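Quick start: read one record
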Amino acid sequence: MTAASRPRAHQGWPLLAAGFRPFFLLGSIYAGLAILVWLPVFHGEITLVSAFAPRDWHVHEMLYGYLPAVITGFLFTAIPNWTGRLPIQGSPLLALVLVWIAGRLVVTLSAETGWLTAMLVDASFLALVAAAAAREILAGRNWKNLNVVILVLLLLAGNVAFHLEAHFHGVAATGIRIGIAVVVLLISLIGGRIIPSFTRNWLVRENPGRLPAPFGRFDMIVVAITALTLLSWVVSPESRLTGAALAFTGLLHLARLARWAGDRTVRERLLLILHVGYAFVPFGFMLNAASAFDLVPPGAGVHAWMAGAAGTMTLAVMSRATLGHTGQPLTASLATQAIYLAIIVAALARVCAVVEPAYGEPLLHVAAFAWAAAFLGFAITFGPLLAGADRRRKVVT
């Protein structure tokens, strides 16, 4: 992630010059608009033409709609740095974008297109992403990053399971937990590499002193334990044994976060937000552990992971990557800081809406509008950079 990118000259539309450009822009727009649609659906004011139950449509389009777009944008930007190969751009990139858009359409209109067509079109996106990523990593002999491809394939399996459950059982359950588990594991793996790395680079230059511990054996042990705990949660989320494992894993992630010197990054919000976003990972583990012991409703931990960890980390990574790869200074403007504040408000309000059901209705609206403000604010603020030409060819992220 710290290597200089080597994009080839792209003569066409700048939006198709690199994977992060279309997927960050479209993913952020979709994340904001889908929530604004969800509110009237939730209140029964409009009806979707989807074979999914309304709640399942909302969950699916957050978990298997917007998140795969952002993950793809990140991977297709990171892989050329990992392998030294040229990026996917132009017509092949456009084809992937169109497949992703087609997936959003057929899922939303699946009552008309049919559930099987919706599943095949929707699942084909992650299948193509996994195939393209595997080809590049294998061609570049970058074996250590094949684990990311495995996680994309697991996300694909979760998506297929979601469609099958929704059709044959009426609602999805295991397919939801599989997807959430994969996302948390991706954040644990990738966040554990980039957060201490970016923090170290900035501290050495701007605030000498205590430095974060680099990714090492402790991190590998934590990621392995996280994978086992999440597997237990997917299979038996209400088990007391799972609850104990969730609590222990949450403590491990808190210890991990404490090793990264996040308290020394307050002056640079572009870095601080990465630490804040990762803090929702142990928060989610703790809330899910409390849920297993009937102390809080089960949705609290899920929303800490999804609205908190996934929402905050995706905005943090998208903003940093966009600035770095378009030749901008790596610092958070006031507009960017407002985006970060909005997503934190959204995440906390959504968790509190579950924990305090007496105030659930107003908190739900606060969460929805703050989420939409964060992602649509990103699209408005960073859209011109994503759709425009780079200011320089060689950047350090």
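Confidence is low (pLDDT under 50) at residues 1-6, 392-397.
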